[in-house]
Fold:
Amino acid sequence: MNAPELLKALGWRYATKIFDPAKKIPADTWQALQQALILTPTSYDLQPYQFLVITDPATRAALLPHTWGQKQVVDCSHFVVFAAKTKTTEADVDKLIRHTVEIRKLPAAEALGAYRFMMLGDVVNGPRGKTAHEWATRQTYIALGNLMSCAAVLGVDACPMEGLVPAEYDKVLNLSGSGYATVVACALGYRSPDDKYAKLAKVRYDAKDLVRQI
Ligand SMILES: Cc1cc2nc3c(=O)[nH]c(=O)nc-3n(C[C@H](O)[C@H](O)[C@H](O)COP(=O)(O)O)c2cc1C
Structure:
């Protein structure tokens, strides 16, 4: 993909209000988008979230009244709820260390002792530990942005959705007490020809307002 093609895809995407309920994302395309979610970078690589991919119609119907009545939740092909960890623990740090040792075939977990110590002092016992859910929430938004851009590149429509009641989502999705809590969602699929929003011009400030060269 070259630069003009990238900008074309990003100009084509918009926050889809009406999905065509008959159009489903093909399995291979969805697998690529799911892998894009997994490949999202996070601070320290801690990945303090889960992505709940909701295709079950009954669950979606139960979420609709807690989504400000926005029909994207029931009409889209794949509905993803981003849940962030509510707390970061020493066990989370150790899990990452063990996984890193295994994947990178490092001699022993002790090889990462200094890194472990630094993480504990920050995300467990330090400033980011005190605001763990808020910090994890910020990481989920990186995943959301990544998903939306990748969807656009693959010609899949998406609507990022903060218009929901997280506490009610947690109840419907049995997240209460799980260590994860709902943050935001994203509906994905294909736009309906009736969605007049698709034709609206983009409203963005100029580079002179948003970009400063220093
Ligand atoms: C974090 C976030 C939450 C959003 N929540 C909603 C939502 O609940 N419902 C909706 O229709 N659009 C929602 N939007 C869409 C924005 O209104 C939209 O992205 C913005 O107006 C720019 O328009 P565009 O995405 O079509 O270019 C959300 C966007 C973001 C980034």
Q: What stands out?
A: The pocket of flavin mononucleotide is lined by residues 14-15, 17, 70, 159-163, 184, 202 (CB under 6 Å).
